Here is the input.
Amino acid sequence: MASANGGVPLERKQAIVSALCKSRSLDATKFLDDAGSDIKSLSVNIMKTAYENNEEFNKWVAFAEKFPSDSEACLKSLSQLNEYLTDYSVLVGGGSKPSDADIIVFSTVHPYLVSLPNTDRNKLPHLLRWVDYIQSTHDFGELFERIVLEKAPFDPPLAKQTAKVDAESSTKKAESSAKKAAPNGKAANSGADSEKKTDSKQASGKPEAATEKKKVPEKVPDDKEKELSVSLLKIQVGLIRKASKHPSADSLLVEEIDVGEGKCRQVVSGLAKFCSPEELTNRLVALITNVKPGKLRDVVSEGLVLCASNADHTVVEPLIVPEGAKFGEIITFAGHEGKPEDVLNPKKKQLDKITPNLFTDDKGVATFKGVPFMSSAGPCTSTIPNAGIK
Here is the structure.
């Protein structure tokens, strides 16, 4: 067997070159002439070429390089990124695996995103879903966390505004607690006493003030996580006993769905273009049963059938519940065991905040942030991989 530098067989190097080039969509013949080089040099040369020729990767590198510091321009760029992520799980590759471009853009936008007021952050549901996914798949280390906590790269006006709101909120909470705790009408002096104690603690070099300051931002992700938790939804396995066309809307179907309540729920779904009534009859579906009942074209609907959809919404299908699941049982998510709401509050837009985190993986398994929809008979699935679920 022929060999090259260091005794490594030439065929082995050629195989490595072929595999690396295939994975990076490069022409291997351009690198085979250089097979006399060591494996490290060959690999570095191939990776460098791949990045130089990758238009998608370079587009996002340019996005990171040009990302603005001005608060208004920053919010505009974040909104554009949110719009792009409406149809994608990750920035490059078209699948669900984060790329180096995702790491670069995440590291760029994350500090700015966490400094936004809640009112602005709530307008970016797809970006929040993407950020949560990248964080769950990568450990960015202590240095990154310290930079974010110290708000080193934040736009100064935006950072000061956020800090001022946090400080005012913390002060009001402290004063309120002091008034409630003060006995015998001494609450009037609680503000002055608190101020003296704070000065005393700062003079003695004790870290109590710093500890109290850290407690305020810690509550924000907890509240946000609660709002976005899939545990708020009551998703049950339902059996469609009957399906028919909506009396006054060609795009809608009306289903009678049994979830073990003694009587069927009437549900209106926009499935007429994708499924016939006959195809849906006697089919198991995943049904959100704690949505507020409402009318769709004068017909009451008492639930929401969860469906997977491709990016351009030309293919839509109800999630596939595995055979053997019992109608009426609750779909569960490992690690999300909270109690569902009795009825979702439309004003809080809870459903709108949760559904961007529902998607099928590359194998078609239905998930919430990568955690499968589980029935007693196994996970719910779809024939559409990497699809959104609504």
Summary: The longest helix spans residues 156-181. The first strand starts at residue 235 and ends at 245.
